[in-house]
Structures are given as structure tokens and as C-alpha cells.
């Protein structure tokens, strides 16, 4: 889908960044293996959604809640045409979440834009968390899994998020700890093709 491309005087990191930005293909390590693919749609990742709640199993955090009107989202949308080419649209702002959407085949540019604008508007009505939480060694959490972050005081901030990174620490004084980097907000059915 991405096609051939050439980059002169470059590094592997720059190539990986190009693939991430333009095609939504992420490069990361999972279980000690270098993986290139969709970071949030690996079928091997557990479907369990552990719950982390303030005052319960969140020991420490540096979470920041992004309110809906402050959210930055960039959407790359495409629709395959009958001749094998793609109609493409990009909308939104740099510096926030990046989403790649495959809409149903045969959409003209105007319809594709309307669908992408609807998706962008939907994304801008919901906030989400950025940052890390420190919890106990259990529940087990892995990179790419979905976790729930809950706040009894501000229930409107309860979210489901992908995990971007997990660091495990162990010490005589602190015990077994799991530091979880909270990624983009998850919505049920988000990674199916839009029809």
C-alpha cells in the first residue's frame, strides 16, 4: 500500500519514523524481538483490561488529563478505488494522536473527507490521559494491551487506554513494581474497517 520510496543519507530510525508517519507502521520491541506493524492491533496481546484506580492500586503517577477541546489529533484516511489506486485525505493537527483509517472502497474525495471530518469531530469530543502510572507487580500488563484508568472523584475522566511501554522494577524496599506508560485512548471496535 505504501509503495516504493527512497531516502538518501539516512538512518534506520528516520526510515522507521517515515513509515510510522505516512503509513501507520510502527517499529518497536516486543518480547525481545524487533517488530514492524500495527502497534495496537496484535492478536497475540491479551484482551484482558486490568483496572487501575486512584487510591487503590495506583501507587504513584504523573498522569495529565487532556480535556476534549485541548486534544490534538491527526487523521490519515484512505479509500481504495476500483482501478487499484487510493483516494487519500489528511485532517487535524500535529503533535497529538495519529490515526490511520481505511474507509470502505470506492468513496470519492468529498465523501471521504466528510467521513474523516466526522471521525475527527468524534475524537475531539473526548479527553484522555498522557503519562505514566506506577502500580504493583500484579495485574500483569504488556505493551499494546488495553487498561482502564478510573477516578472515583472525577468519573467523567474514566478511560480505556493502550499501553505504550511497561517497565518492571524490583527492590528490597519498594517490592515488585510495574511502571506503565499510558498511550492513546481506546474505543471499542476502533480498529475495524469503516463501512
Describe this structure in words.
This protein is mostly beta strands and 195 residues long. The protein has 3 domains: 1-37, no CATH class; 42-67 and 128-185, Roll (Phage tail proteins - horseshoe like beta roll fold), CATH 2.30.300.10; 72-123. Helix content is 14%, strand content 41%. The strands form 3 sheets. Strands 3, 4, 5, 9, 10, 11 and 12 form a 7-stranded mixed sheet that branches. The protein has a 3-stranded mixed sheet with strand order 7-6-8, with helices on both faces. It has a two-stranded antiparallel sheet with strand order 1-2. The longest helix has 15 residues, at 109-123. It is globular, with a radius of gyration of 19 Å. It starts with 11 loop residues before the first helix and ends in a 10-residue tail after the last strand.
User: Any idea of the CATH topology of the largest domain?
Assistant: Phage tail proteins - horseshoe like beta roll fold
Uncertain regions: pLDDT < 50 for 5+ in a row? 191-195
Which structural class best describes the helix and strand composition? mainly beta
Classified in CATH, the superfamily of the largest domain is: Baseplate protein-like domain - beta roll fold
Task: Give the rounded overall mean pLDDT.
Answer: 79
Quickly give the CATH architecture of the largest domain.
Answer: Roll
Largest sheet: 7 strands, mixed
The first-level CATH class of the largest domain is given as Mainly Beta
Radius of gyration: 19 Å
Total strands: the figure is 12
Query: Total domains, how many?
Result: 3
Task: Give the number of helices.
Answer: 2
* Helix proportion: 10-25%
Which shape, going by the Cα principal axes? globular
H-E string: HEEEEEEEEHEEEE
Distance between the termini: 19 Å
The amount of beta strand, in percent, is 35-45%
Amino acid at each position: 500500500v505504501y509503495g516504493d520510496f527512497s531516502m538518501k543519507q539516512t538512518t534506520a530510525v528516520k526510515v522507521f519514523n517515515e513509515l510510522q508517519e505516512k503509513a501507520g507502521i510502527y517499529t518497536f520491541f516486543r518480547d525481545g524481538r524487533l517488530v514492524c506493524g500495527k502497534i495496537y492491533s496484535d492478536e497475540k496481546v491479551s484482551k484482558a483490561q486490568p483496572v487501575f484506580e486512584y487510591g487503590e492500586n495506583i501507587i504513584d503517577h504523573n498522569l495529565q488529563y487532556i480535556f476534549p477541546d485541548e486534544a490534538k489529533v491527526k487523521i490519515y484516511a484512505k479509500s481504495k478505488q476500483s482501478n487499484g489506486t487510493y483516494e487519500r485525505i489528511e485532517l487535524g493537527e500535529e503533535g497529538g494522536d495519529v490515526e490511520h483509517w481505511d474507509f470502505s472502497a470506492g468513496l470519492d474525495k468529498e465523501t471521504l473527507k466528510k467521513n474523516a471530518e466526522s471521525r475527527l469531530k468524534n475524537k475531539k469530543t473526548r479527553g484522555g490521559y498522557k503519562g505514566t502510572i506506577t502500580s504493583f507487580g500484579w495485574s500483569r500488563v504488556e505493551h499494546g494491551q488495553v487498561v482502564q484508568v478510573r477516578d472515583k472523584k472525577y468519573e467523567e475522566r474514566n478511560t480505556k487506554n493502550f499501553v505504550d511501554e511497561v517497565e518492571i522494577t524490583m527492590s528490597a524496599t519498594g517490592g515488585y513494581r510495574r511502571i506503565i506508560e499510558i498511550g492513546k485512548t481506546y474505543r471499542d471496535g476502533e480498529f475495524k474497517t469503516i463501512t
